[in-house]
Design a protein that fits this description.
two-stranded antiparallel ribbon, 6 helices
Length: 224
């Protein structure tokens, strides 16, 4: 007989207790849910991320119909603003085309307005704006074109709406090609560039986000 001690038999692996499996399952589910939440959050802006651009200042300008429009008139509405002029040789026709697309998509949206502000108000009288709007088949109840005193328009554009405005050596105005989305309280919540891919779709998403926000009691006193 051999004098070598017999090797001890290997013990079978221990099974995890039932509660350990339950805890592991719950942790895995929690991690998957958290990852899914982060992924969805990266796909679209939240309301908080759209809230820090600025506040629309008080204004009182004239529409293409010769009526007066003020900031207070827009409270309770979600609106998209762009800046243009009717004899613009550059991006304005494309910008107006994008606004027309938005208008078409939002025919049934009662609380949405489109506002195009002329930065060449000395030429763009209400009559000129009316003719321009007619060529675009713009519904005056939904798409508003504004003109006013040049100094007030300039200050509203640059100091109020925080957009670039200048004049080139040939005397032609140059301006921002951004579309600003304003919420029901008159706060600028989104700014989209004309050359952004899928611009109209992104603006429609922004508008939808703001329309879904809870309505609050709106104040009509003048802004500073």
């Amino acid at each position: 007989m051999s004098d070598q001690p017999k090797k001890e038999e290997e013990a079978p692996p221990k099974k995890l207790p039932f509660m350990a499996w339950v805890i592991a399952f719950l942790v895995a589910g929690f991690l998957i849910a958290g990852a899914n939440h982060l992924f969805r959050g990266s796909e679209r802006k939240t309301s908080d991320e759209m809230s820090l651009i600025g506040t629309v200042p008080d204004f009182s300008f004239t529409t293409q119909d010769g009526k007066t429009l003020a900031r207070a008139d827009m409270l309770g509405k979600v609106w998209v603003v762009d800046f243009f002029f009717t004899r613009c040789p550059g991006p304005c026709p494309v910008m107006s085309s994008r606004m027309a697309e938005i208008s078409k998509e939002l025919k049934k949206a009662k609380d949405v307005r489109l506002v195009s502000v002329s930065i060449d108000p000395e030429h763009d009288t209400p009559e000129v704006l009316s003719a321009y709007a007619s060529r675009l088949n713009a519904d005056p109840n939904r798409w508003i074109f504004l003109t006013g005193p040049k100094k007030e328009i300039d200050e509203f554009t640059t100091k109020g709406m925080l957009q670039v405005l200048a004049t080139d050596p040939a005397g032609i105005p140059t301006h921002s090609t951004r579309f600003l989305v304003v919420d029901r309280e008159g706060k600028i919540r989104s700014a989209r560039k004309l050359d952004e891919p899928e611009l109209v779709q992104k603006l429609l998403i922004d508008i939808g986000e703001l329309l879904r926000e809870p309505k609050t009691v709106l104040l009509t006193q003048p802004m500073p």
